[in-house]
Amino acid sequence: MRALWVTGDLVTHHRRNGRHYYDRAGRVIPHQHFEQPPLLDMAAYYRWIVARRFQAVGLMRPNAEAAIWSACGAAAQRKQALTELVNAGTLVPVQIDAKPQLFYAHAPMLKLLDQPPLEPRALFLGPLDSFLWDRKGVQQIFGFDYIWEVYKPEHLRTWGYYVLPVFYGNRFIARLDSRLEKGIWTITRWWWEADLKPDAAMLHALSAAMKHFARYLGCEGVQTSEEVDKRVRRIVERL
C-alpha cells in the first residue's frame, strides 16, 4: 500500500481519528486533472511548484527551511523561478515593518486585505501545518519560537513531545501538550505567552476551539491535569 501511495496510484480519501483511508486516485482527484497534458517544460514546472509552495504558506521567505523546497529544484532554479514569478505578477514582494528580510506573497491573496476582518477565533495548529513551515519566518513576524520536539530525546525538550501552538486573532497566544488515550483527550500542560492577558472573548474562542478539536479527535471526554492554568481548567469543565 505504501508503494502504491508513493507512485500516486492510491491517495488519501479522508481521515478519521488520525487514521488515513485510501482509494484509487482516479476516484478521488477530479478527472480534468488527469486529462491535462504532462508538463514537460522544466522552467514552467519550477515556476508552478515554487508558486504552489508560497500559496500554501501564504507569506514566506525565499530562503526558508530546506525541507519546504522538496521537488522544487536546486537553489539556482528556485531563484530563477522566483524572479520570473515576480516579473509575471504571480508573487509579490512584501516588506514587514523595518525588517531587512523580504517575504513574498501569492498575488491573488492580496485582495483579502480589502475584506472586512473576520471574527477572531482560536485555532490549535498541528506541527506540520503549512502556516508553521517557515519557522524562522513565523518567529520574525509573530515573535513566536516553535520547534517540533517529537524526535528529540525527552531530556532535551524545552516544551514537550507533541506541543500544539494556539493562534487567536492575529497572534500566537499559547501552546499546549496533550494526549489522547482510550477515548479521553487530556491536556497535560498549557503555557500562555508571557506578554498575554487573556480576556473573556479570548476564553470564549478557546472554548469553541476545544469543542471543535474534541469532535475532530472523536473523543468521548476531555480533561486536564492539575498543573494546567485554572482558566483553561474551567473551560474544560464546562464543555
Structure description:
The chain is an alpha+beta fold and 239 residues long. It has 3 domains: 2-31, no CATH class; 42-114, Winged helix-like DNA-binding domain superfamily/Winged helix DNA-binding domain (Arc Repressor Mutant, subunit A, Orthogonal Bundle); 122-238, Aminopeptidase (3-Layer(aba) Sandwich). Helices cover 31% and strands 24% of the residues. The chain is built from 7 helices and 10 strands. The protein has a 5-stranded mixed sheet. It has a 3-stranded antiparallel sheet with strand order 3-5-4. Strand 8 and strand 9 (184-192) form a beta hairpin. Helix 3 (42-57) crosses helix 4 (75-87) and helix 6 (200-217) crosses helix 7. The model has no long low-confidence stretch (mean pLDDT 92).
Show the helix and strand layout.
Blueprint: H1 2-6, E1 10-16, E2 19-24, H2 31-35, H3 42-57, E3 59-60, H4 75-87, E4 91-95, E5 102-106, E6 122-124, H5 135-142, E7 164-168, E8 171-181, E9 184-192, H6 200-217, E10 221-224, H7 230-238
Parallel strand pairs: 9-10
Antiparallel strand pairs: 1-2, 3-5, 4-5, 6-7, 7-8, 8-9
Jot down its keywords.
239 residues, alpha+beta, Arc Repressor Mutant, subunit A, Aminopeptidase, five-stranded mixed sheet, 31% helix
Task: Provide a concise account of the structure shown.
The chain is 31% helix and 24% strand. The protein contains 7 helices and 10 strands.
CATH class of the largest domain: Alpha Beta
Strand order of the largest sheet: 6-7-8-9-10
H/E series: HEEHHEHEEEHEEEHEH
Biggest β-sheet strands, sense, barrel: 5 strands, mixed
DSSP helix fraction: 25-40%
SS elements, strand count: 10
The parts where pLDDT drops under 50 for at least 5 residues are: none
Tell me the CATH architecture of the largest domain: 3-Layer(aba) Sandwich
CATH topology of the largest domain: Aminopeptidase
Distance between the termini: 39 Å
